[in-house]
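User: Please fill in residues for this 152-position structure.
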């Protein structure tokens, strides 16, 4: 089977499924960050008090979310001319699977979307702050480290 065309086709299906699943996972992380940022803003917390923060947020999260959406939409664009049902299913089957799993969890657990004012962003913060106090302050020793510390 490793030399047949069937193996290449199965590999292509697997690659499409994994790509979509990976992008949907990162999109979920981005939505969680955007909601977290909105909760910080609504509850009056300053981002400069956070231990880890990246520059240009939340704009880079919005950009990445739009970029990943475009990738997902055009991931299987080749199947539309001429239309290939197998290619269409493998390129886009991850979307209804993700949506159905999300809907199932919302219905099963009876959870609801919280507004930015209602979000609990303080539970566990004291323990995390205490753990962070044990880390030594890192100071850049040269220009390269200064750039790296600004990025990461």
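Assistant: Residues filled in for all 152 positions:
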């Amino acid at each position: 089977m490793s030399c047949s065309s069937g193996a290449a086709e199965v590999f292509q299906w697997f690659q499409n499924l994994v790509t979509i699943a990976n992008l949907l996972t990162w999109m979920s992380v981005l939505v969680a960050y955007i909601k977290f940022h909105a909760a910080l803003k609504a509850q009056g917390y300053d981002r400069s008090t956070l231990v880890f923060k990246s520059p240009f947020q939340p704009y880079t999260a919005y950009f990445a979310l739009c970029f990943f959406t475009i990738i997902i939409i055009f991931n299987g664009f080749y199947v539309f001319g001429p239309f290939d049902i197998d290619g269409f299913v493998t390129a886009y089957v991850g979307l209804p699977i993700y949506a159905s799993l999300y809907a199932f969890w919302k219905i099963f657990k009876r959870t609801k979307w919280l507004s930015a004012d209602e979000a609990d962003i303080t539970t566990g913060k004291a323990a995390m702050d205490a753990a962070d106090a044990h880390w030594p302050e890192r100071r850049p020793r040269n220009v390269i480290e200064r750039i790296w510390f600004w990025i990461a």
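For context: The two ends are 45 Å apart (CA to CA).
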